[in-house]
Design a protein that fits this description.
The chain is about 55% helix and about 0% strand. With about 80 residues, the chain is an all-alpha fold. It has a domain of about 40 residues. α2 runs antiparallel to α3. The chain is flat, with a radius of gyration of 23 Å. The chain starts with about 20 loop residues before the first helix and ends with a helix. The relative contact order is 0.10.
Length: about 80
């Protein structure tokens, strides 16, 4: 096994800042929300409810049902 030693005379370059967490996921979410059209505000309120309730789906059922009904109305058009 070789022993690796650092060169004390070498300059260390600062590492580039890390990319924002889940930036690609956020971009994808934006596109998905746009596709929901008139249901997008219901979707976003469901997301808020899930965050506020620590992802407790049972406590957000009113939001789930409202989004489901909106989606079903869109599909009938």
């Amino acid at each position: 096994m070789e022993k690796v030693t650092e060169n004390p005379n070498s300059e260390t370059q600062p590492s580039p800042p890390p990319p924002p967490n889940h930036q690609m996921d956020a971009d994808d979410d934006d596109e998905n929300v746009k596709q929901l059209k008139e249901c997008s505000s219901l979707y976003l309120s469901l997301q808020d409810c899930l965050v506020d309730s620590n992802r407790d789906w049972k406590s957000c059922q009113k939001h789930v049902q409202a989004l489901k009904e909106c989606h079903e109305r869109r599909m009938k058009k």
